[in-house]
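Protocol step 4 of 5: obtain the predicted structure for the target chain.
Materials: sequence only (see below). No template structures provided, no constraints applied. The aim of this step is simply to have a reference model before the mutagenesis design in step 5. Sequence pasted as it appears in the construct record:
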Amino acid sequence: REAAMIALRRLMPSIALAGADIPYDELMALEVTMADFLAALRDVEPSALREVFTEIPDVTWDDVLLHLSRVTDPPTSAGKSNLTLLRLPGLVDDDKFRTELQSLVDKAVADAAFARDWRHKRIAHRDLALHLRTGPDRPEPATRAKIDAAVGSIFAIIERMYGFYLDSGLN
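Step 4 output (structure tokens):
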């Protein structure tokens, strides 16, 4: 289509635009050439290329696993305090809610255990036996389903706290 428009623009100077019709001879002289196609390719992306969309994520699997690990780590490690979900139940005064919250936190910690295992063996310590593939102690596979379960457990904690303190639910 663009090549035809280029050919038509080439013919435009010789057409009297004031007239109602374009003379038949001039229309018959209209010809789309290879040069028109090549000129059109410079201006228009082929339709197949317009359908390609590439996105490079700025978050890696290791980032996700590290953050799942950190948010479910013990309250202290190596003598330093950690920002972790395990601190939440101790901040709640209501005994019934504290027990419920502790159960949700325990589930999140269990669901994220694979991420802490992955961090300890693969990311943080670069376990030699693991990298040489000589040791039997390989990390648990980190699958999307496991990540979804861990994030879902964390979301359940947030949703329950929101409901308890603000008497509402997250959608």
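Step 4 remarks: The beta strands are 76-77, 80-81. The CA atoms of residues 93 and 99 lie 10 Å apart.
Proceed to step 5.
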